[in-house]
Amino acid sequence: MTSRVSPFMKNLILSFDSMDDGFTTVHAYNDEGMRLFTEQWISFLSFQHEPSFYGLHHDEETRFSTLELVELFSPLVKHPYVHVSGYAQEDESTITTIQQAADLWSAPTLWNDIEFEEGSLVLTTEEVTPDAKVMLTSAIQQKLYGAGLTMADIPTLLPFFKQGGWPLQAQSGHTDVNVALRLSEPESFSDEWLLETVVRGKKSSVHWTPAFRKKESPIADALPDKWKIHAPYVYETQANMLELMNIEADTDRFLSRTLSDLDVRHFLRDDAARLQALGFEVILPGWLKAVKESKLRVKSNAKTASFKTTAGLNEILTFDWHFSLNGQAITEDQFKQMVEENREYIRAGNEWFRIDSHWMHEIRQLMEQTESEDWTVKELLFRELPDALVLDEDNLEEEEDPLFQFELNQSLQKYLEQLQDKKGLPTTNVSPHLLTELRPYQQQGFDWLVFMREQGFGVCLADDMGLGKTVQLIAYLLHVHRTKQTDKPSFIICPTSVLGNWQKELARFAPDLDVHVHYGQTRSKDESMASELISMKPDVVLTTFGTASQDAEALSEIEWASVTLDEAQNIKNMHTKQSRAIRKLRGEHHLALTGTPVENRLSELWAIFDFIYKGYLGSFRKFQENFIAPIERDESENHKQKLRNKIRPFLLRRTKQDPDLLLNLPDKQEQREYCPLTTEQAALYESLIQETLFKLETLTGFEKKGLILKMLSKLKQLCNHPALYLKEGFGEAEYMMERSEKLAQIVTLAAEIAERGEQCLIFTQYIGMGHLLQHCLSELHDIDPPFLTGSMPKAQRDRLVEAFQEKEFPVFILSLKAGGTGLNLTAANHVLHADRWWNPAVENQATDRAYRIGQTRFVHVHKFVTIGTIEEKIDKLLADKQALSEDLIQSSQWITELADDDLKELLTLG
């Protein structure tokens, strides 16, 4: 590292990490090598950088685009008393590259050294490194795109840039007058538009143009006396605008010329956009600013000759098209003629209106597609019409006569609605080899899985935990492998914790299936794996997510009859090696099983759908623009509904509360067990809060979130027991119980449950709490409860689960992450949550280890909450978060994104 250069200079030691998406993450360190919080250094780097509001845009994470890096190191922005050095040698090289690009960025000679060849910028100077050239040209492109310009605009802009129009910035204007271009619509009985230069005083709203007799006079002569002093400014501004336009005109006189309909379209598409991007004012008719205020209506009716069976999904659709202009019907030929003539501005009576030419061409293209591509019912069901053709649902109630209507004949519409609702599907006979009876809703799920396989569509079975996703899949596997549909094996990938459960369930319900477990150190790998499968010819291959990731290359070479992910949320982080590897597997049919399709972010939903039906939700970047941003940032109900409709055909979700399922499960009661803090806990709690609130006042963004999450974990451990917070060893059990009312209540309740001959599960997030519970139950009540954690070997887990189900011990302590999914623990009729999770879906999954099919007794759920603390306040907020989770669309704006006042209220000890 480099030491400080001068006692008068602030030294920033930076490290740079290039990301796959083109951005660069920057971190800063002090002279001792300690990493700094963002707010400690970002203002020095963004000293005069107005686009980022002087660093405020980087309150969450310090990711910079190439453009931002170049601008930040530009002499126009750089802090005069800040010296920048690299954390390592490669960081020094990066700084040198950025600095070279930045020095040229604002140099007056920059555009003399740039050539435009085949649509690309080429930097001819030899004074900088190749890396700096790449960085500079990339920054220029980003600057242009950000202003709404493209590389195609470069030839026209070159003279402007060479005369000082670079870097792009808003035009400074004049203190007394404003110069603009104004486009006026044609007068009555005319089809000529008028484009002219207009002037107005800064304090006036009226635009001035020269009188008719002065239109041919030089600018200085035509101007009123009060403005003649500003003639050079008016002349220069108009000359700059004309130079940027594809219009030939005399720069000495005020512009006043007529345009045709086609000229106007070119002006709006090219010239006006370019001028506005460069800061010049363009005045357009008010009605012209509304892109789709069209009086042209299009209606299409789709129908088939007959539609009676599912085979009809492959029937060809026919379309009848109807058009009206300003309420008057026009023929299809007239419409096509309007499209061919590129008509865009039409007068109907005394009213001018615009027909979006691009929109009309899309309609015409859709018509041609329906004529040439022979759309089937199946294609229409899953085809996404262009947004431009569909009325915005926000305006559905206000707009009784939409621009575009797509209608289906009654019988077809009814059938497609049944298909969307998973009703009326053909019934598939359950294999006699299935050693159980399917409940009616499970039969429906099985029918749906088979139907979707036959249609070639992947699926996401998202039933609530405990409703029998496993048995529905086993019925599906028996159908696939016992009706001689395939000679390829099916592949199931699951968490390690439930691998044994899958073995037992398959052996229990479908012993006729030949199951091979691909797991452990002795498993075959690489080429031997494929040859082993050929010789063994298993029906089903079982493995874990970790093993599938390790053996990804060999597994991806095998063509599977089906690939199923159990607890599919394990691939939710799409950028991880595990997620990418599993999404590359090749199966005739892809299935995802999950009780929580969306735990925190919509990106998880995209990852699951990228596995089951690759390409359906588009690229992640497109999905981000179309759904994630408007839903997670703007809470757009319209986009939520649009996404629900889009995923609905591929997702089957039923909950235990659904009355149609007729589950007849025993009752479940949830109750809060409230515990006060001890004096010791309260003092430690108050001290931690005050210390944290003081730090929060100096932090913003990513560091603030990190501190909050760290503090939340400490608070939850403190609410459990001060020894966990202070990282102390365990003393005598009675003394440990005196220090925490919560610990005392949990231990006492568990002992009472055991004494009555009942069984209970205790869930905790913290290993220390689990060991503390074991310590107290053993010492005080002679109960030795096992503690299932993520580090426990699979064989040991399986033995413990089986022993608990056989009632060999009454109390079972489980880590929430390791024991919260996949396990069947219906021997328990009490569930104790020692500490609260921030996501209610996770708690519900844990509860469902006991409250699931097979449970015959009343289930009592005890949620321990420490009074007056963050636990009690979070408990109230969880009700709102539960509603989001059940809505399938869940925002990520949770505890770390609360406003400061709300956060303080949440943390204050009640």
From TrEMBL:
<dbReference type="GO" id="GO:0005524">
    <property type="term" value="F:ATP binding"/>
</dbReference>
<dbReference type="GO" id="GO:0004386">
    <property type="term" value="F:helicase activity"/>
</dbReference>
<keyword id="KW-0347">Helicase</keyword>
<keyword id="KW-0547">Nucleotide-binding</keyword>
<dbReference type="InterPro" id="IPR014001">
    <property type="entry name" value="Helicase_ATP-bd"/>
</dbReference>
<feature type="domain" description="Helicase C-terminal">
    <location>
        <begin position="745"/>
        <end position="904"/>
    </location>
</feature>
<dbReference type="InterPro" id="IPR000330">
    <property type="entry name" value="SNF2_N"/>
</dbReference>
<protein>
    <submittedName>
        <fullName>DEAD/DEAH box helicase</fullName>
    </submittedName>
</protein>
<dbReference type="InterPro" id="IPR001650">
    <property type="entry name" value="Helicase_C-like"/>
</dbReference>
<dbReference type="Pfam" id="PF00271">
    <property type="entry name" value="Helicase_C"/>
</dbReference>
<dbReference type="InterPro" id="IPR027417">
    <property type="entry name" value="P-loop_NTPase"/>
</dbReference>
<dbReference type="GO" id="GO:0016787">
    <property type="term" value="F:hydrolase activity"/>
</dbReference>
<dbReference type="Pfam" id="PF00176">
    <property type="entry name" value="SNF2-rel_dom"/>
</dbReference>
<dbReference type="InterPro" id="IPR038718">
    <property type="entry name" value="SNF2-like_sf"/>
</dbReference>
<dbReference type="Pfam" id="PF12419">
    <property type="entry name" value="DUF3670"/>
</dbReference>
<dbReference type="InterPro" id="IPR049730">
    <property type="entry name" value="SNF2/RAD54-like_C"/>
</dbReference>
<dbReference type="InterPro" id="IPR022138">
    <property type="entry name" value="DUF3670"/>
</dbReference>
<keyword id="KW-0067">ATP-binding</keyword>
<keyword id="KW-0378">Hydrolase</keyword>
<feature type="domain" description="Helicase ATP-binding">
    <location>
        <begin position="450"/>
        <end position="615"/>
    </location>
</feature>
